[in-house]
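Field log, afternoon session.

UNIT: design team B
ACTIVITY: writing a sequence onto a fixed backbone
BACKBONE:
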């Protein structure tokens, strides 16, 4: 098949976030990845000092026009993640609309509607209505966490029933959106596991829904959502849209990566490892990103 992804995300020179997380797993799995860096920063913003540059919405348009004028804008997927600027997000919507008009169902738009986590925004709040009203109706697959799902649906979520209600509300508002994966947010009562949910609109009035139980790994990591979205592209493509094995594979690879990262970060018994110590062990985990070990 035509495995070509256009990924519009951040770039960090050192460490892992945005495109630096998403591009490598896709390439490992044989995808041609064309990436546009919405920013180029020295490190991700969890570090003490961050320096760098931002791409403007007009810069983005110029790059897109270049691709289009050469007739090389035919992609199987568009992937977007964290975006810090409302007018840049609107421009992404314009580009996605343009590509969708040209290539229709041959193109899947995978959107991680990044807004925040744990009850708080870390992206500008003005992005939320743009995602809700403009982006989600264009998307085929979205990967919100529970906070983002709650904001986008306008439903308070503290349990599974409310989570599924919020998912249903988004499905009914966005009939073309076929897969919603809630990557994280609900935790077991003993704090040892987190839950992930996937929901697929079967477009015959029915929905396939699954819960995934994920053992919690000690530590807080940056870039896990970006890897999640890229591996989801890989496995939904490989497994022909079958959400249950696809999401299982994504979670299994992430488990191996985060175990390795966590063990290294806490190796010397530090209570609070630094941002550098918590950077993902991406290269060391290349085999785990390629072949998910479902036994873990
Ligand atoms: P988001 O960045 O959107 O809040 P997360 O990064 O929290 O999403 O989660 C993405 C995926 O990364 C989860 O579905 C899970 O598989 C994995 N993950 C992230 N943090 C942990 C953790 N502490 N323990 C286990 N898995 C984790
Ligand atoms: Mg999170
Ligand atoms: Mg996320």
């Amino acid at each position: 098949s035509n495995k070509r992804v256009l990924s519009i995300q951040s770039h960090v020179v050192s460490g892992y976030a945005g495109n630096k997380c998403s591009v490598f797993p896709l390439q490992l799995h044989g995808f041609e990845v064309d990436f546009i860096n919405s920013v180029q920063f020295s490190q991700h913003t969890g570090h003490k000092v961050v320096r760098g540059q931002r791409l403007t919405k007009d810069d983005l348009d110029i790059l897109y026009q270049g691709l289009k004028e050469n007739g090389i804008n035919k992609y199987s997927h568009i992937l977007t993640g964290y975006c810090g600027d409302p007018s840049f997000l609107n421009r992404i919507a314009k580009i996605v609309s343009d590509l969708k008009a040209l290539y229709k169902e041959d193109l899947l738009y995978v959107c991680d509607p990044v807004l925040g986590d744990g009850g708080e925004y870390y992206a500008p709040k003005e992005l939320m209505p743009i995602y809700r009203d403009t982006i989600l109706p264009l998307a085929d697959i979205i990967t919100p966490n529970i906070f983002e799902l709650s904001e986008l649906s306008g439903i308070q979520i503290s349990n599974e029933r409310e989570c599924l209600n919020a998912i249903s509300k988004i499905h009914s508002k966005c009939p073309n959106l076929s897969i919603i994966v809630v990557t994280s947010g609900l935790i077991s009562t003993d704090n040892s596991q987190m839950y992930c949910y996937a929901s697929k609109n079967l477009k015959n009035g029915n929905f396939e829904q699954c819960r995934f139980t994920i053992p919690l790994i000690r530590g807080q990591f940056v870039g896990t959502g970006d890897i999640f979205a890229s591996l989801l592209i890989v496995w939904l493509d490989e497994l022909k849209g079958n959400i249950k094995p696809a999401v299982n594979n994504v979670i299994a690879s992430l488990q191996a990566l985060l175990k390795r990262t966590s063990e290294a970060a806490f190796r010397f018994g530090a209570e609070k490892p630094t941002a550098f110590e918590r950077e993902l062990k991406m290269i060391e985990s290349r085999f785990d990103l390629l072949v998910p070990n479902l036994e873990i």
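LOG NOTE: Residues 4-222 form a domain with the UDP-N-acetylmuramoyl-L-alanine:D-glutamate ligase fold (CATH 3.40.1190.20).
NEXT ACTIVITY: expression trials, pending approval
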